[in-house]
Specification:
The chain is α+β, with helices and mostly antiparallel strands. It has 2 domains: 11-42; 47-137, Sandwich (Immunoglobulin-like), CATH 2.60.40.1150. 21% of the residues lie in helices and 39% in strands. It is built from 1 helix and 9 strands; from the N terminus they run αβββββββββ. It has one helix spanning 12-41, and strands at 47-55, 64-71, 77-84, 87-88, 91-92, 96-98, 102-109, 119-126, 131-137. Strands 3, 4, 6, 8 and 9 form a 5-stranded antiparallel sheet that branches. Strands 1-2-7-5 form a 4-stranded antiparallel sheet, with no helix packed on it. The radius of gyration is 30 Å and the shape is rod-shaped.
Length: 141
């Protein structure tokens, strides 16, 4: 084996500094990735129904329910379907995205007329699988 006395290797101090620098760089990259991952998963959708109004359409049919919804969560919410007392609603303009910290008015057209003084459970379903409930009482007359 030939030993070269004129060649010098890295000193242990320089090697330690390089090793520490690489370790710090990798830990910063992992911390940034985990931070972004955490913020993505902690975004919440939270709907609050702030008001319900039972109304009639122009042909005197009591088939319209106006629902005021506020998104108090940190991510936009897309309402995909609505149920009123267990029946899926197919009419009205309730679809769309509600931005975080904003309010929207949903027009829900039900298939049968609502009755005076009855309780109606309103269920809003979102694209992320969230379900939000509210029970409203129709006016007495």
């Amino acid at each position: 084996m030939i030993v070269w006395k004129s060649r010098k290797a890295l000193s242990p101090v320089v090697a330690s500094i390089i090793l520490i620098a690489v370790t710090v760089a990798v830990s910063i990259a992992v911390a940034a990735w985990m931070g972004a991952l955490t913020f993505t998963f902690t975004a919440t959708e939270q709907l609050t129904i702030t008001g319900v109004q039972f109304s009639e359409t122009s042909d005197d049919a009591r088939d319209l329910i106006l629902v005021t919804v506020r998104n108090t969560g940190t991510s936009p919410v897309t309402i995909t379907s609505v149920e009123v007392s267990g029946e899926t609603v197919s009419g009205g303009n309730y679809t769309g995205t509600i931005a975080a910290n904003s309010q929207a008015l949903l027009n829900i057209t039900i298939s049968t007329s609502w009755d005076y003084g009855y309780n109606y459970q309103i269920k809003l379903m979102t694209s992320k699988g969230g379900q939000f409930y509210y029970t409203a009482i129709a006016p007495t007359s």
